[in-house]
Design goal:
103 residues, Arylsulfatase, C-terminal domain, 5 strands, alpha+beta, five-stranded antiparallel sheet
């Protein structure tokens, strides 16, 4: 799925990967319950899923919140659209800009 700020994939191993326009990435693994963040320099950091939102890495937290907003929106739209011609409406997501205030 594509938004104004990112492209989201669900990989065959069920990992959700979000590639942002500024070349950062978030990967969520439900199996290992970790968040992996790749910054603009290509440096990887891994955090436990249950505490990632409290991380001192504010750039990662901002993008993780954006990812959560997108996933929540997709789930809500899919539930609301069940039985309505298969339309999902996911192309109208307007979540907070995760790149706002970044260099």
């Amino acid at each position: 799925m594509r938004t104004r700020h990112a492209i989201m994939f669900r990989l065959s191993n069920k990992v959700v990967q979000v590639n942002f326009q500024d070349h950062t990435e978030i990967m969520l693994s439900s199996e290992t319950k970790v968040v992996t963040y790749v910054n603009k320099k290509g440096e990887r950091s891994t955090y436990p899923l249950n505490s990632a939102m409290e991380s001192a890495n504010l750039e990662m937290v901002k993008r993780l919140k954006y990812t959560k907003d997108i996933l929540t929106h997709m789930l809500n739209v899919n539930v609301a659209m069940v039985g309505k011609n298969g339309q999902t409406g996911t192309d109208k997501i307007d979540a907070t800009n995760p790149m706002e205030g970044t260099q």
